[in-house]
Amino acid sequence: MGRIAAWFQERLPIDGAQLREMTNxxxxxxxxxxxxxxxxxxxxxxxxQVVTGVLLSFYYQPSPDTAYQSVHYITHxxxxxxxxxxxxxxxxxFMVAAVVLHQMRVFFTGAYRKPREINWxxxxxxxxxxxxxxxxxxxxxxxxLSYWGATVGANIADSVPWIGAGLKTMLLGGESYNxxxxxxxxxxxxxxxxxxxxxxxxxxxxxxxxxxxxxYEFDEQKASGDKETFSFFPDHLYTELIIGLALMIVLSALAxxxxxxxxxxxxxxxxxxxxxxEWYFYVAFRWLKLFTGTAAVLSMGLIVFAMFLxxxxxxxxxxxxxxxxxxxxxxxxxxxxxxxLTIWEAAVAH
Length: 350
Ligand code: HEM
Hints:
Elements: H1 2-11, H2 16-23, E1 26-28, H3 40-57, H4 67-76, H5 81-108, H6 117-140, H7 144-158, H8 164-172, H9 181-211, H10 219-224, E2 229-231, H11 232-257, H12 282-290, H13 293-308, H14 310-321, H15 326-349
Antiparallel strand pairs: 1-2
The chain binds protoporphyrin IX containing FE.
């Protein structure tokens, strides 16, 4: 063993002790509370998505003539195809939930404030990539709901003033859904967006490492006066691994008990009675139904833009109102509206 290690050491002169020191930065004690280290969960789920996605790509064929049949083959004939497909779907759902929960933790603890504004913006790009992955993935199945979901999505893009028509053409690869649309969605879903996410996750975590996570002092720590820390390796890594294993059990159970289904094949000539997107788009869907086309799209764009700039808006609001907790109150109202619109749409969609 020593000789093998020496062989490698001679060719790759990496110092083990230095490497350990680099990866072993002390982690602040509050990260023992699971909601403070929720950021590791989407990263883990992303890996599950990539592994199951690669397996699905062995069989999936992105064209209107073959897509539905290939998904049917995966679901009913390929060995463990149903399991891989269901894991992919469930981990996508969990990933969106984990990203949103992580963002809420960052928001409500004010962890986006100076000097972490840039990482908040990187996080917003990660959020957009995550929902775009969901949208393009849902559209790949070529069942009625996914076909009409994609069509509605493209029409929403179309109602953006000035650039709408161009956006729609870019998304569909033509003026309407055509034989190139699915391959375009597939390239976005399986190559462009995941590659972008890998880069963004690396940048995001590198910034976390450079800046360190925000330090908080809880009452019991204040009382005892100690600044508790623990080591990244193995303590924090073990916690993340245990969360990963628990998630794997939950995902496997869900994939087995509530496996992915396959609705009727897409029929471009028959609009279904209810067009239903994935649950995380319910809020946007309800918003679009409440307001008219362009007003709804513009107001939604404005909200997303404000979310990007939130660290700066928050600073301004606190200075003007002199209420230090103003963002918490705005956050509570926003989450309330989000939940209410989602439940409202869910009640109609089912
Ligand atoms: C795929 C999506 C994401 C991944 C994998 C990820 C990963 C992480 C990780 C591992 C941390 C370290 C601390 C923790 O675990 O909470 C972190 C911190 C952070 N994340 Fe994310 N994140 C994602 C999305 C987001 C989003 C959507 C936002 C906000 C828009 C965001 C903003 C931040 C900020 C500001 C920090 C620093 C928090 C602090 O200093 O306490 N992240 N992220």
